[in-house]
Every structure is written in C-alpha cells, then in structure tokens.
Amino acid sequence: MLMHASLAVTPAGLPLGLTAAKFWSREKFKGTKALARKVNPTRVPIEQKESIRWLDNLRLSTELIGAPERCVHIGDRESDIYELFCLASELGTNFLVRSCVDRLAENGGTTIAQVMADIEPSGTHVVRFRDAAGHAQEARLAVRFATMTVRPPIGKQKRYEHQQLQIIHAAEIDPPDHRAPLLWKLITNLEVASFEQAVHKLEWYARRWSIETFFKTLKTGCRIEDIRLTTADRLANCIALACITAWRIFWMTMLRRAKPTGAPTAVFTETELRCSTATELYPESLKTRDLKG
Question: What is the pTM of this model?
Fold first, then answer.
C-alpha cells in the first residue's frame, strides 16, 4: 500500500498540516504497464494511471482550503502532467511544477527547450543547500524565463486545449566536478514578467523539500514502514494518526526556529501543558498499571 500526501506550507516554510492523503495499491493499476507496451503511454487515459493521484489531491486540497486563487500547488517532476495543468485552470487555482517533458510549444512546430535555447539569461541567482552527504553547497544559477503557448501531447490534442504558461529555467554556472549540476526547469500558470518574479518562483519551488522532511519524520520517527497490521483499513488509520504526529513535530520544529523565545501556549493547549507538568513532577505515574485497577 502506498500513500500520496499533500502538505500545506506558508511561503516562510511553516507547515500548516495535510490537505489531502490518498492511499492506493498498485494491484489496481497492474494492467497499465502492459497496455503501455502496446500503445503510446500518452494515449492511455489518466484515469487508468497511478498519476491520477496528483489530480485527486489537487482537487481535494483546493476543496478543503476553499480559496483556490490563494493556493499554489507545487510538485516535482512526477507532477508534470498536462491534465493537472488543465484541472488547475478549471478549478481556478495555481501550480508550479518541475518539468521532465519537453512539450510541444507555440504553433506545435517547436518545443519548450527549443524556445528557451534562444532566450538570454536575465540574471543570476545564488542558492545554498546540502548535498547527499550533508555538506553545505552553494550554486550560482543563470535564470531564463519566457511566456509561451504549451500544447498537449499529440495523443491528447483532441481532448485538451493548449495553454498560455510561463517557463523558468535555472542552470548552474561552473558546477563543481564532485556533484551533478543544478538544473531546474519549472512550468507555472503564475505571472512571471520579471527576473524578480522568476527568482520568487524559484524560492517557492525550494519549499517543496518540506514534503521530504515530513516523510522523513513519518518514516524514521514514526516508523510507519515497521507497522504490522492485518488489514489495509487498519494500516491506513494507523498511518493517518502518525501523519498528525509527524506534521506536529515538523510544525513545532519550524516554530522553534522562527520564534525561539515563543510562549509554550503557542504550541500546546492548557490540558497538554498540565499533562506535561504532571509528567515532570510525577514520572512514576507513567508506569504501566493493570487495566482492571
């Protein structure tokens, strides 16, 4: 069983909680790969693919928040799905995803990559991060952006309309030899009319790493992959509770960094504070007792 989760995060990086969580099994989609061997994968309806989860969560998240115009749905290369672009337009919400497909562009006789190859960089932007070994890294990126007509895959052009979207490419300048160079290719329906707006979207996309931190807490801290329950429903319920725990740990961590002198009442309820005080004063009260006692 797998889970696809959507996490609400403020521009400052504070996680507000999950907006959607979808559980599924690959057993349901076992025929999709066999079908893809016979026909072009782009001709397989999205409803028959595991990637439908991206659309389901976008719809559920937008419905839960109730203000689609305020939402920006950020996803990695798995979310580069033309149907997602169309659904966002239909719901009146926004998306910012990392592209993995060189889509048809303009009149259909060229592609996004070919158009962007003729765009001059508008400036450079420095990002700081840690590599796989945890070492601090710094990269200087050349930023290019453009607005263009993006067309659906050939097999879906009768079903979906072309869209006017913004493309941002950020490529590392003079990357070191010990790691792969940074290259972000983003596609969005948000306005990108200046270098500053392009950098703003790069900073927003960097917030996508929050979901990785959440899953690390869920898997390493809550150890959900070690849970052994006999039914999928019980497992899903247990993981759902662990999701609340993982989010709250993440939330408290970010609050602590933002306001190190904040009051405990900003995080805990009065009941929780009383329980915490009682535990500190009377640790023996936590000893296991006979349930009949």
Answer: 0.85
